[in-house]
Design brief:
The protein is of the alpha/beta class and 172 residues long. It contains seven helices and four strands. It has one domain: Rossmann fold, CATH 3.40.50. It has a four-stranded parallel sheet with strand order 1-2-3-4, with helices on one face.
Length: 172
């Protein structure tokens, strides 16, 4: 899999859904790594086709895959060794994997909702907050950018925001 391959796949899926959805809204919803795919596809639609997706929901996002890789728990032990950045972080870039949510949200104009659990042990909530600040700073209409955090007492972590019974109302 490649970043451009993922994006191409999502655009093909978008075309398929759009052809069958009538006037229904189409929302891109990305979780974790998928947030980079969602913003890539939305940006490509906007810049290359002049089409704006109806909305984007980013669940447990990050700014770039490099920053995410520097924070995931599996890399904790390796971060202290010399060469971590070169061997791990730079190798992601050499594979043309960037997933620049931070750059993508700067050019988007569709409604953007960022969801993050305070007890996310994979991608810390600070990454979602940082992405929110970037988007809010870039959006002309600040009311289109929302950030919702879920208290750690709910125990939603990285994978269970979608199980929160209040989620449909929050998204709506």
């Amino acid at each position: 899999p490649t970043e451009s391959g993922f994006t191409t796949d999502v655009l093909a899926l978008y075309d398929w859904v759009k052809a069958r959805s009538g006037n229904s809204s189409i929302i891109f919803w990305g979780h974790s790594l998928g947030t980079g795919i969602a913003t890539n596809a939305a940006r490509k639609l906007q810049e290359e086709r002049g089409v704006q997706v109806d909305a984007i929901v980013l669940e447990s996002p990050y700014n770039s895959i490099r920053e995410a890789a520097a924070h995931v728990p599996i890399t904790t032990i390796y971060r202290q060794f010399p060469g971590f950045e070169y061997l791990i972080l730079d190798s992601i870039a050499l594979a043309n994997m960037f997933f620049r949510n931070d750059e993508n949200v700067k050019v988007l104009a569709c409604p953007l909702l960022i969801l993050h659990a305070e007890d996310d042990a994979v991608l810390p909530v600070q990454l979602g907050r940082k992405l929110f600040e970037t988007a809010r700073g870039a959006y002309k209409d600040k009311s289109k950018v929302k950030f919702i955090t879920f208290p750690k007492e709910l125990g939603l972590g990285h994978d269970y925001i979608s199980s929160n019974p209040e989620l449909p109302a929050l998204v709506k």
